[in-house]
Design a protein that fits this description.
heterohexamer; A: 84 residues; mainly alpha; 69% helix; rod-shaped; B: 441 residues; elongated; binds sodium ion
């Protein structure tokens, strides 16, 4: 008897939970789609290049004119590290 | 002097080592081996395994509160005082070991915070102190903070681009959550059968293993069933690591070769603004429809907003690196503190391990079936193999989808397509967690 | 089952959203927009804005203590127990909502720590828990720690070289603090007029906005007027971001073109030893003359000493990066927890916003006038434009000085000269904070 | 009446506070000046080059002879990052 | 108004500065000078020295609890209430200063946690708050956490390769621990002579200085003799820095030139697997034989396992950098909080400084003598100079061995050979610490 | 008399402590030696190169073919830093 009740509660929770997950994500699909459309229409930004997975590497490509700056920076940083 | 040497011996681990503790030390070593040799989610399983060994050092009491240590070690007079404080009657006829046992059970059970504090004060007064792992657990997990901070870091590492390019993949992430609820029902069923003795709260916490999200599992079970947290976390991370073994057979069984070869249309580029607005839109939906998921999804969205907004890079970097690493170390050790022999070596643990496996399998299957259903009703082709990524286990499950896809068609790269349901699965299980906390928390 | 679905609805945010909460969600989004689109101090305003939204999620209670949540949600029996614990009488005739309101007010007010702990114990016993943001606030701000750690990081990022090369610029930093005290007087005056109802403590906390130093403002108001902390922090960071708009008109109004064109003599080089001794000298002065500024200026000097002493670079790096970032995240979220609708949406907030603007304007003006005075009495020429940098708002105000200077004379770079009063302003407001804490704390 | 008192207290605090700020910073000016003079006289160090604003960039300029070391270090670090 | 200015003066540091506080400020400056000019363990001595100055700022009470501040500053009525709470009788005839003194002594002494909390509640109720350094100390040291986290970081920085290549060097690390126990005996002897008044617990905590391991010293004295922690930590880090001065004369006195010229056989390469298994093997021995060393050696092994296992590099990096740096800052400031004049300026401090020096000398000598003994009984040659590295003081002592060796034979590089006993000394003193905690903790 | 007792306790603790330290480290020597032998015998791994002291520098040497990648990475990182 109590077992049946536990089972029933489990079933209810399953129905409710699964239902809610679907409803919530459906709403999210709708909102997201609308949002994307609105943005595409009203704020047609220049498309962002695919962000690579690591946050650290997000720097946009830069023109090669300051390679020397970079190298000397690297030298400095290397030396500083190794002096520690 | 001889007496002192004797104390050294009678206080040594070897003298006091119980069989259970020895077994748990081996379990800890096994987890470390899985992490190191088999690369099973090492970032979590190394600290968990090590913490598990530490928690089972006899007499060290690293995972015990001051009061629990006193219950284990104190002289009878103090035991009586503590019992009085805790408003317990100790049977004078029963031996002292019975007293210790009674006190331990009460302290471990559902004692009121005020009484617990009084008992701890008394124990500290007598020179006992909280164990190291107990302190880590209190600060990191009992407060709920560590899983949330990790979730923030995960948010800062998540790229919603693929999901935004194809929002319908959210349905796959929804379907895969059926693993959670089926497992809940399984756990309840086992109890109804009399095989195990899980309460509804415990069943829900077990079910969340099927969400394939470590921090979500830990957060939910710290609220609904802290006594099972150790087993649930271990099952959760182990099965996440086992995804490359568990999923492919199911994926192949449920799909035809033709389905596995479906080529998906290339994802459209997603603008920066969409990526910024998405976490806010998700947050607003949480605000409106499921406040109980607010801590989890709130922190997740916060991390993602820091990532995408582009003006707080130094905070985002820290959330993804120093902060998440620090918290991971302490979270892992804290979870390990729940691997104490007398709590972990119960038949329930076996049930949890079995149910966890089932949860993953069902979640995988439902994700695939949902993809097939969507293929049936919609024009835009979906390769059903990406459905299995809906269980989350980011990014492993997406990689598995890609790999199985390549086996059928070596030129069909599904990885980016699978990342959509993959991150949708994270949202899905956080929503499921919110529903469970709402009804049971 | 229907009942359960109903619970889902009656527990949802949409059903419970009060107008105030909706407004505050919008305020949070506004702060995020200012931070992201307008670059208003994003490191703080992103977490504050997001925290503000989280704090206003209906029913989630993220910013509430366990007892406050119980007061909001618990059954009447528990309310009565809590009232008894708090030594309150609840009028049996009044409705339950009146009870809730009474309890909430008492808990939010000046209740003794022992009673508060008892009430929280009782609420936890009944299954309530501290909200996430409440915990962040307790650890980060109520303890006073987070602003101090940030101040240490600021110290580690501050170069006192320009100040040491021209110590007289300290007078500019002193003069600009008049904004603080004038605002205090303004707040007191508003109360005397009956427009607002600020106590002297609250007026002092509002005045500190004029110091243009976020951590100082937060530290002082966490001590003198924690109930206004949200509004004060928001005003403080917003106006710091608005410095490029607020200051130039005042600067131009108070100076002639000729004055703006004054070329300053180049700063002498400063030796390493001077930079090491300076924070220690400042510390000793604090020891001797204003112990109440010791936490703020002590941590500031400590950070600066770590920076300059050259032997603890790894500590200095951490203080400037990982540590300050971690603390900033939690400080911001904690400040956000003070943006709860029922506390923030008061007429006092408008008063604070207005007064904060006035504070910046007066501080700017006094800094400039002081520079003009110094020019009158001393030979060494000072461009009055650097006086406005004395309000601090590092390094924005110094950049504004430079920019306005360049408009008059495109070859006159004032940036390094303005850095002197700029960091002097930090010291000045910490001193002012110390005086206020001494008399009112 | 009470309002007057509040105003008076505010005025007193203003006078006191502003006064103290000036006195304190004046003393600081004096102490700093003396300190600088004393150091200039008794410890006439070789002058420190202006430290740039960011702590991270404090490395002194280094001779260019180890550019190759720096490059290879950069290579290693780059690879290590991306292997993770 | 005049009265207020007077308050400013009577509340200033200059007015209240006691001679002891002035002396301690000078001691703090001395420590800073040693750290900066002489490179004495600057990572610790900079924060300790600075914290020491902060702790001695008159009237600021940064190192005091709320109750201690109340005892120092509160009105008589509150003092009487606090005394009642603490179950003390205050002699009405004695003056108020006597009351303050009585309360301070009781609060500083061995008062029960429940009473202490009640007293603090009462003080907070009256507007007093915990001082900043007191909070740091509570969280970082009183909990035992900070030294353990630092030990984890040290483990992550330690390479056991040289030790594994020549495990017999562990004997040198064992022998050098004689310094610990000889010092203990010395402290006990001083008390027996009536020169000092050290209890056995205090003597043990002082002895651990001879272990030449900062975190171990701090951990042990936080458990056995927190009242001496300041002096012990200062002695510990100072003498570690003085190793290049203390050790060479002893090394030369105890060895012949011929012995100093002994060339050791090159170390064999050590496999990755050995390095992984070693921390686990050490952990298991701790589990079996000395549970009381589990916190220290457990965290040490955990750090080392993270370093060597190769799958959690990001955790290992964080443990070695951001985390250890953050904890070092707060540990140092917390230690500084124990340099309050009235506690530190006691004759016991001089005894501790003297005994600490003796401890280092004896440890050095015993390490060398043990190496000579091993040379006598074994074929494999050991240069006795590496014996002195057994005191630990990593890596300074190993460098000293190398340097003194090079003086005798410019081609004989002992550094790697000396790293073996050097890290063995870390293990040895942690074991000694475990034994002491077992008997006295 | 009490002094004698304190001295005695100190002596006892010294004997016990020193003895235990030696016993424990002796056991550790034995275990370590056995462990090394067992590993050398059953898992004769290719020898690990000496790990340098700093964790940060553990990157294995890499072939020089991607120097250009490294340089451009350095450039990006340099620019990102300085833009902040
Ligand atoms: Na999931
Ligand atoms: Na300022
Ligand atoms: Na040692």
């Amino acid at each position: 008897m109590q077992d049946t009740q536990l089972l029933n509660e489990g079933l209810a929770l399953m129905g409710l939970g699964m239902g809610f997950v679907f409803v919530f994500l459906t709403v999210l699909v709708i909102v997201t789609t609308l949002m994307s459309k609105a943005i595409g229409r009203f704020f047609p930004e220049p498309v962002a290049p695919e962000a690579p997975a690591r946050g650290g590497a997000r720097a946009q490509a830069s023109q090669g004119d300051d390679v020397m700056v970079a190298i000397s920076t690297a030298v400095h940083r290397y030396r500083r590290r190794h002096r520690r | 002097m001889t007496e002192k040497i004797l104390t050294l011996w009678t206080g040594s681990g070897l003298y006091n080592l119980s069989l259970g503790q020895a077994v748990m030390v081996l379990v800890g070593l096994l987890l470390l081996w899985l992490a190191m040799a088999k690369k099973f989610e090492p970032l979590l399983l190394v600290p968990i395994g090590f913490g598990g060994i530490l928690a089972n050092i006899p007499e060290a009491g690293l995972a015990l509160s001051a009061a629990e240590q006193a219950a284990h070690l104190a002289r009878p007079a103090l035991l009586e005082q503590m019992a009085a404080t805790l408003q317990l009657g100790l049977d004078p006829a029963a031996g002292i070991d019975a007293w210790r046992h009674t006190l331990t059970e009460v302290l471990h059970g559902d004692v009121s915070p005020a009484l617990l504090r009084a008992a701890n004060d008394m124990a500290m007064d007598a020179g006992f102190a909280h164990g190291m792992l107990y302190q880590f657990y209190s600060v990191a997990i009992a407060s709920g903070i560590a899983p949330l901070v990790i979730f923030m870091g995960v948010g800062a590492m998540t790229d919603f681009g693929p999901l935004l390019a194809n929002p319908r993949t959210l349905f796959l992430g929804a379907a895969a959550q059926f693993g959670i609820f089926a497992t809940l029902l399984g756990a309840v069923g086992m109890s109804a059968m009399g095989w195990m003795d899980f309460s509804l709260n415990q069943a829900a916490a077990i079910g969340i293993i099927g969400g394939a999200d470590g921090p979500t599992s830990i957060y939910v079970s710290s609220i609904l069933a802290p006594e099972l947290l150790g087993a649930i976390a271990v099952a959760s991370y182990s099965y996440m690591a086992l995804v490359p073994l568990i999923q492919p057979p199911i994926m192949k069984a449920l799909t035809s070769k033709r389905e596995r070869e479906i080529v998906m249309t290339q994802l459209r580029p997603v603008s920066k603004l969409e990526k910024i607005v998405f976490p806010l839109a998700l947050l607003i939906l949480v605000v409106l429809f499921l406040p109980d998921a607010a801590p989890l999804l709130g922190m997740f969205c916060f991390g993602n907003l820091m990532r995408e907004c582009g003006v707080v890079e130094r905070l985002s970097d820290t959330a993804q690196n120093a902060l998440i690493n620090i918290v991971t170390i302490f979270l892992g050790l804290s979870v390990g503190s729940k691997l104490m022999a007398d709590r972990f070596l119960a038949v329930e643990t076996l049930g949890i391990l079995a149910l966890g496996m089932v949860a993953f399998a069902i979640g995988t299957a439902c994700g695939i079936l949902m993809a097939k259903l969507m293929n049936a009703v919609s024009r835009m082709p979906i390769n059903p193999l990406i459905g299995s990524a809906g269980v989350s286990a980011v990014p492993m499950a997406a990689r598995v989808s890609n790999k199985v896809g390549l086996e059928s068609n070596p030129h069909n790269f599904l990885l980016m397509h699978a990342m959509g349901p993959n991150v949708a699965g994270v949202i899905g299980s956080a929503v499921a967690a919110g529903v469970m906390i709402k009804y049971l928390g």
